[in-house]
Amino acid sequence: MSKVYITRRERFNAAHKLWREEWSDEKNEQVFGRCSNKNWHGHNFDLFVTVKGTPNEETGFVIDLKTLSELIKVEVIDHLDHRNLNLDVDFLKGLMASTENVIIKIWERLEIKIKELGAELAKIKLVETENNFVEYYGGNEPF
Amino acid sequence: MSKVYITRRERFNAAHKLWREEWSDEKNEQVFGRCSNKNWHGHNFDLFVTVKGTPNEETGFVIDLKTLSELIKVEVIDHLDHRNLNLDVDFLKGLMASTENVIIKIWERLEIKIKELGAELAKIKLVETENNFVEYYGGNEPF
Amino acid sequence: MSKVYITRRERFNAAHKLWREEWSDEKNEQVFGRCSNKNWHGHNFDLFVTVKGTPNEETGFVIDLKTLSELIKVEVIDHLDHRNLNLDVDFLKGLMASTENVIIKIWERLEIKIKELGAELAKIKLVETENNFVEYYGGNEPF
Amino acid sequence: MSKVYITRRERFNAAHKLWREEWSDEKNEQVFGRCSNKNWHGHNFDLFVTVKGTPNEETGFVIDLKTLSELIKVEVIDHLDHRNLNLDVDFLKGLMASTENVIIKIWERLEIKIKELGAELAKIKLVETENNFVEYYGGNEPF
Amino acid sequence: MSKVYITRRERFNAAHKLWREEWSDEKNEQVFGRCSNKNWHGHNFDLFVTVKGTPNEETGFVIDLKTLSELIKVEVIDHLDHRNLNLDVDFLKGLMASTENVIIKIWERLEIKIKELGAELAKIKLVETENNFVEYYGGNEPF
Amino acid sequence: MSKVYITRRERFNAAHKLWREEWSDEKNEQVFGRCSNKNWHGHNFDLFVTVKGTPNEETGFVIDLKTLSELIKVEVIDHLDHRNLNLDVDFLKGLMASTENVIIKIWERLEIKIKELGAELAKIKLVETENNFVEYYGGNEPF
Fold first, then answer.
1. Per DSSP, which regions of chain F are E strands?
2. Which of these, A9, A7, A59, lies nearest to B36 by C-alpha position?
3. Over the stretch A42-88, which tens digit does the pLDDT of each residue have?
4. Tens of pLDDT along chain C (143 residues)?
5. Radius of gyration (Cα) for chain E, nearest Å?
6. Which of D18, D28, D40 should we substitute to test contact with A (largest number of A Cβ atoms within 10 Å)?
């Protein structure tokens, strides 16, 4: 049966900074530049979750998008939206709040839950600004 | 020789509904939600067709984009644009008009025709709203 | 006190056709082209509602955006989203479902309700496709 | 001579919260909702500065866009980008950091400087998310 | 009767440079920067033409958009698309090819033709890049 | 260790034409259509460079985006922005200036330099208009 990929976008607005406590202010600024501003900065993040599966014969759905949207909200958006990524999020505690690290943690929260819905998490894309974004395939390297 | 991927976007505006005749109204609404509205709803669809090939030495082209655009119009857009996906489209008859099913049928209409043009259909992307889209690789699973 | 304009975007997906019952099929097609397809077509509509007012000294708000969003949903989106503009909408009955006519009717539904919230409806913009949109200032002609 | 309007877009990423110290936590959350999160949240802001003037006969310019861009950077972006709008910005001190208030303050910083360049500040637009933005005409009400 | 504004977008891709023959190379580069590159550069231009009028009672149209699109193509796009704005365009000859000057000339070509269609040209917007655009109201200054 | 893909967008505005000197004018126009206009045309190009790697434990970075941005500017943008792709660019000399050929040459300029930064070039995307773009994986064919 033919596999189709379906993607749902959700959004969240969050504050963060790139900062290592054990480093001096100078080193933090040297490495992280403006992203190390002590009083934080923030972004509108766009999160794209791509799920792979075979369309159901009766519904034509790979996955019910309302269910997928609700899952992403409960597992990810409710934790990150209008939050501080460094201070407010249990599953990011102790982690440098780079988009690279955040996307891996989002994958870990969604992978099994999507399997329980009968589909397969295939890709996540996290857009920080119009000029940069990260993508993650669960550690796979399609190219 | 190095393979390059080139993508052409075309657009169509169509009506559809998600509805199974053999189901009760209640079941249709329960499964398909607002998409089951009896009198239809509609979307601006964006269709991205990606073709793979080696650039021609004289033209630098993988495929002539005017030819590709014309092919997509004749095979797909003329059938779907300002149409009802459930009622007006021969190649969708008897099929649940989900984006998952529509993208597979579009692939089937384009695959051989593009081969006849000396290139290879590699991917189709069909965007229904800014929040959801489907992608299809002819059944291949690159990730 | 300085007036600021604040805009809220909401979206709806709807079916419609441009069609006059008293005209022949030929005349309908001649005047309305592909938009006269008998079995409907549809769009993703973007609705921008612009409200004018003085920022409140305590909140810094011209209007509470959650309240404005909720008002637009109750008065407009719930009536139009996943609906047929010709068949399903009380306040569009008997009207040619052109964007020009729809935007006037949306204005009429919002103007007083926004005044009751202590602000002033200044402009509505209704986007049908990336290539065409209408704007309405309640009959005013700023330019 | 014919007046033309020219607009330059600049961007900044900032943290903020909507919060009144003299209010209880409950009242802050009731009025400002998720925007009152104590540890801040943030946005990618798009700032559009529109200047009005007559094209220069030799250059065809209303204003030199590099000069305008540099002015916006020095007067606005350098103060707001990767900053906390509540804590880090001199000209926003003591002010509720709503987009309505921020846009008025940006106008005040640019108006005279643009006049000194021989043009006239006509409009500012500040986009906070894809769903809301504010516009300001220096207190004028064109509609 | 209530006036509604309707906008049609058309696009063209063109080369140009900002250059005065009577100036030295140094002065050209000093004034026009990278835009003075002798061998040209180019842009994807987005042209938005806004027409004002009362919706027709039978059609609901301010103006037939196919007619408007065709007019813009014949009067503007066919002259500018895949052209050199300095060399190939009769109505731009002898003029500095700045967006400010181009938009005035486009207005002059469209104003009467749109009046002949029973509507009124209200505004033109010409977008050169995502960071700059010009707007023209026929010399009017709504704000 | 998990590989993450990070993408940086840069932009350039350039003139070009599709033209073979050894062909007649008629053949050039027949093959390349409007793109063969003798006096050039141009585009706003969007260049997306995707790099693959493991996030650094201390910084959370696959690659420092400022370093990547600077590299792309020095190696690519400074050569292409406000230039003529046929006349002004050393590394495109003697080559048909199609997007397919340009993207391969950009890859060749970036691949080793990115390896020297400890990461791996994974994909380049070059967008010519909203309707067409090319993608290149260094000759790999992930799908």
1. 4-16, 41-53, 83-84, 120-129, 132-136
2. A59
3. 999 999 999 999 999 999 999 999 999 999 999 999 999 999 999 99
4. 799 999 999 999 999 999 999 999 999 999 999 999 999 999 999 999 999 999 999 999 999 999 999 999 999 999 999 999 999 999 999 999 999 999 999 999 999 999 999 999 999 999 999 999 999 999 999 99
5. 17
6. D40
Is E43 noted as a catalytic residue in this protein? Answer: no
The mean per-residue pLDDT over the stretch B20-40 comes to 97
> Which positions in chain D touch A43 (Cβ < 8 Å)?
13, 42-44
Token pair belonging to B51 = 């073709």
Is A41:D42 a contact under the CB 8 Å cutoff? yes
In D28-114, where do the E strands start and end?
41-53, 83-84
Are the C-beta atoms of C87 and D59 separated by less than 8 Å? no
* CB of B44 less than 8 A from some CB of C: yes
Chain C, window 46-75: residues with a beta carbon less than 8 angstroms from a chain E beta carbon: none
Helix (H) or strand (E) holding E66: helix E65-72
Supply the mean pLDDT for chain A. Answer: 97
Q: Which residues of A touch F9 (CB under 8 A)?
A: 130-132
φ, ψ dihedrals at B76, nearest 5°: -125, -60
Residue pointed to by tokens 């010409």: E126
Task: Compute the distance between CA of residue A24 and CA of residue A17 in angstroms, rounded to an integer.
Answer: 15
Residue D17 has a pLDDT of: 97
> Taking CB atoms and an 8 Å limit, are E104 and D4 in contact across chains?
yes
- B10, B60, B142 member nearest F96 (Cβ): B60
* ipTM exceeding cut-off 0.95 for this assembly: yes
Q: Read off φ and ψ for residue B7, nearest 5 degrees.
A: -125, 135
F127 phi and psi angles, rounded to 5 deg: -100, 120
> Among B95, B104, B132, whose Cβ lies nearest the Cβ of A7?
B132
What domains lie within chain C, and their CATH numbers?
4-136 (3.30.479.10)
Positive or negative: CA dihedral A76, A79, A83, A85: negative
Helix (H, G, I), strand (E, B) or coil at A59: coil
Output the CA–CA distances (angstroms, integers) from residue A113 to A101, A116, A138, F34, F35, in the order listed.
Answer: 20, 5, 14, 52, 50
Name the phi and psi angles at B50, rounded to 5: -110, 125
Residue with tokens 């490495």, as numbered in its chain: A31
Give the DSSP letter of residue B91.
G
Q: Does C35 touch chain E (CB under 8 A)?
A: no
Residue F113 phi, psi (nearest 5): -60, -35
DSSP per position, A17-41: ----TTS-HHHHHHHHGGGG-TT-E
Q: Mean pLDDT score of chain D, rounded to an integer?
A: 97
Of F76, D27, F71, B96, nearest in space to C58 by CA: D27
In terms of phi and psi (left: phi > 0; alpha: psi -120 to 50; beta: otherwise), the region of A60 is left
Kindly provide the b/e burial profile for residues D4-24, where b requires at least 16 CB atoms within 10 angstroms of the residue's own CB.
bbbbbbbbbbbbbbbbeeeee
Question: d(Cα F85, Cα A83) in Å, to the nearest integer?
Answer: 46
Retrieve residue F51's tokens.
Answer: 């790099």
